[in-house]
Specification:
The structure is a single chain. By secondary structure, this protein is mostly helical. It folds into 2 domains: 125 residues; 164 residues, no CATH class. Helix content is 84%, strand content 0%. The protein has 13 helices and no strands. The protein is elongated.
């Protein structure tokens, strides 16, 4: 006989399983890639099997959490299936179920937990998303834009002392740098493509797409960084807001890559932020020296 506490845990486990079953099933319905669709269907079926396992002990039908279904479907559409799934699987809902306590009363409970973790990870790895294949290209564009342009804008802030000229200079510099980075990524990916054909590595990225991702993320970052100088006449306020934007962009993008790629978040965040702010500080100092030595007055 199960006590009320264990039964409550089982019902919570049921709700988790049926909710994830619905999410995976709906993702499979809208997924165009056949292999991805197959993997999502498989995970969905396993979640339903787990739900039925718990139902044998509770004797109850449990409805999915419609709010979570909507939330993770939206996240998956906006940021990619892999990110949405991994964010969901790492959520607090799994921690709400005490499998150790349940295992003392129900044989096979721990096996369900291990089976779920093992199979889901295997199946998630089968999902092939374009945006993750080109994650390295996006990281390249973002990191270069953050480091180079934030440093340039910081230096120009003290050297020129005119927000409109700083914004214009930053835009021109940013566009030129974006084109340069895109062309470099194109040539680099062409080399990787040639190596893949000769069997030297397994990377198979389209050079044009890689260049597009790098250039696009660079230009988007440029726009956000020069925006304070277009809207605010106070130079140092614009500089402070620009640096705050740098921190926010680093935080958001690092979180995305860390979840999607199973990487350590805080280490990457601190490293990227430290480099960007160090370069900005050095550039600001160089701008001060240039202004003093050359006597620039704009």
């Amino acid at each position: 006989m199960l006590d009320d506490k264990i039964k409550s845990q089982l019902i919570r486990a049921q709700k988790n399983e049926i909710t994830e079953h619905v999410i995976y099933n709906k993702l499979a319905e809208i997924e165009k890639d056949k292999n991805n669709k197959k993997a999502l269907r498989k995970i969905s079926e396993e979640e339903l099997e787990h739900y039925r396992f718990w139902k044998k002990y509770t004797g109850k039908e449990v409805k999915p959490d419609s709010l979570n279904v909507l939330k993770y479907l939206l996240i998956s559409r906006l940021f990619g299936i892999t990110f949405g799934i991994k964010l969901m699987e790492s959520g607090e809902k799994k921690a709400q179920v005490n499998y150790n306590a349940i295992a003392k009363k129900i044989q096979g409970a721990k096996a369900i937990e291990k089976d779920e973790e093992k199979h889901e990870q295997q199946l998630i790895k089968m999902i092939d998303e374009e945006r993750l294949r080109y994650a390295s290209s996006m990281v390249l564009g973002l990191n270069d834009a953050l480091v180079e342009l934030s440093g340039a804008l910081a230096g120009l802030t003290f050297a020129i002392q005119n927000s409109q000229i700083i914004a214009t200079t930053g835009l021109i510099t940013g566009i030129a740098a974006a084109l340069s980075m895109a062309s470099s990524e194109y040539l680099s990916t062409k080399t990787e493509e040639a190596d893949a054909k000769r069997g030297k590595n397994e990377k198979k990225k389209d050079p044009i797409k890689a260049a597009t991702y790098t250039g696009a993320i660079y230009l988007i970052t440029v726009f956000f960084l020069i925006l304070p100088y277009l809207l605010i006449s106070n130079l140092y306020m614009a500089l402070a807001i620009m640096l705050a934007i740098v921190l926010i962009v680093i935080f958001v993008f690092t979180f995305y890559i860390s979840v999607a790629k199973d990487l350590a978040f805080w280490k990457r965040f601190i490293e990227t932020a430290s480099v960007s702010f160090a370069i900005a500080g050095i550039s600001f100092g160089i701008g001060a020296i240039v202004r003093t030595l050359w006597g620039i007055q704009i």
